[in-house]
Amino acid sequence: FLGNKARAVSPYSATSAIKLGRPYSKLYPLLHLQQIQFVEDKQEFSRFPTKAGRRSLSRSISQSSTDSYSSAASYTDSSDDETSPRDKTQLNSKGTSDFCVKNIKQAEFGRREIEIAEQDMSALISLRKRAQGEKPLAGAKIVGCTHITAQTAVLIETLVALGAQCRWTACNIYSTQNEVAAALSEIGVAVFAWKGESEDDFWWCIDKCVNMEGWQPNMILDDGGDLTHWVYKKYPNVFKKIRGIVEESVTGVHRLYQLSKAGKLCVPAMNVNDSVTKQKFDNLYCCRESILDGLKRTTDVMFGGKQVVVCGYGEVGKGCTAALKAMGSIVYVTEIDPICALQIGFRLGFFSGLLGNKNVVTRDQLDRMKNGSIVCNMGHSNTEIDVASLRTPELTWERVRSQVDHVIWPDGKRVILLAEGRLLNLSCSTVPTFVLSITATTQALALIELYNAPEGRYKQDVYLLPKKMDEYVASLHLPTFDAHLTELSDEQAKYLGLNKNGPFKPNYYRYNHPSKIPLNDTQISDLCTIYLQWIPTATAYMFSLVQSS
């Protein structure tokens, strides 16, 4: 593995081996670490590093928990400077400069990230292969505003393969993977985004995507509604010519319904957020896994015994609550919806009622929090936490890691604020690729549907994804689990009044998850009995392994 140019040197002396104790001496070869020393490397590291070296060392220490080859912190070459990408002139290998990213030289690394994501997005790749010959998006000019990650890149490249021209920007100033943005720019997709944008950069990037001489978008793919709002306000003539909008977030969908109610929505829009495949998979399973990832990377917190308040018990809230409770946290949930509140009572045993989409966590509540409390947001925008109220002269902000701030009160109390109140998982960690494949496939099909729909099928309103399309997205992902659907007989289909090929459920049907079904006392007792019987056997087996070693 190391090749001929390297040799392994043990960092342990014979004395170190003795200190391990005689019973463990035979385990020493398995425990010792190897230090790699390259023979041809003539560089020697002094005891006291240079000024540049100290900066590099400081960065590696302060950001070690968040920097990785992921969206937690984009790969950054040591030669990178702090110059804004807006002040740089960069060219890709084709000689074009219609993009603005952190460093186009990271494209090769970003390409590897995208290839890794493709391996777990087989359904989207399958859709690409099936429809590539027909080019259902030929002539489509799509402007997109989403998180720019390796998974989103697979979607964008699928849209391009289906005939679309794409220009893209980020919906979150912290979630962009710089290397992925570079890889997309390298193949000719006009990307305007980088990790750590300012508010001014954010809107500048959106405008650069829309305002291109000789190019006018006719489709919008949005996450949060900022792009739609910008086009509607600043380019009304362009907005009127849009053939369809696809929106995937709660925030963006609310904005669309407000426009529709006011009679100002002059184009059809598809509400992907409330599709079954988005709600029941992305919102639930994705958040259930990624909230722990984001909190661990940024704070190294131990969840056992912590008292956690989750505001809201929708699908995202259910996923977050399940994950935190499973880690041993004491979870409290606030709600405004009596049905969701009743679900909390059945599953957790306690709840209180409070929720809104703005200032859910107020300054007064932040003032009363304990020293060391962690505050974070799993919603799209940064309005749930009243961050603006914390930017006052009496409070001190201290950046301790990437996307981690200590807000310090005059009495010395510190509250840990993550991602400045923005979306935790994509700002501070990664999300499961397979779940994003489901959402990305849904978005692609929604774009195809709106772009190819005959005139009159969709009016100037907001529509839910057709049930048949939801079922098709799910069917594309079944081969991953080696699952095969049972087919109804003609007699059975007639008895149920269904088409053999679906849709199989009415639009009002509410899908459920086995994980939400509470165990009764008998089931809990049986599980405890099995567990207690298993402990002595397992413990004896582990000790026998140690002794045999």
From TrEMBL:
Cofactor(s) required for function per UniProt: NAD(+)
PROSITE patterns according to UniProt: ADOHCYASE_1, ADOHCYASE_2
Gene3D superfamilies reported for this sequence: Adenosylhomocysteinase-like (3.40.50.1480), NAD(P)-binding Rossmann-like Domain (3.40.50.720)
Region (Disordered): 56-94
Residue ranges with Low complexity bias: 58-77
GO biological process, one term: one-carbon metabolic process
Keywords attached to this entry: NAD, One-carbon metabolism
Assigned protein family: Belongs to the adenosylhomocysteinase family.
Family matches, as InterPro entries: Adenosylhomocyst_ase-like_sf, Adenosylhomocysteinase-like, Ado_hCys_hydrolase_NAD-bd, NAD(P)-bd_dom_sf, S-Ado-L-homoCys_hydrolase_CS
Entry keyword NAD: yes
Residue ranges that the Swiss-Prot or TrEMBL entry lists as coiled coil: none
Protein name: Adenosylhomocysteinase like 1
Gene: AHCYL1
GO cellular component: cytosol
Domain S-adenosyl-L-homocysteine hydrolase NAD binding: 283-431
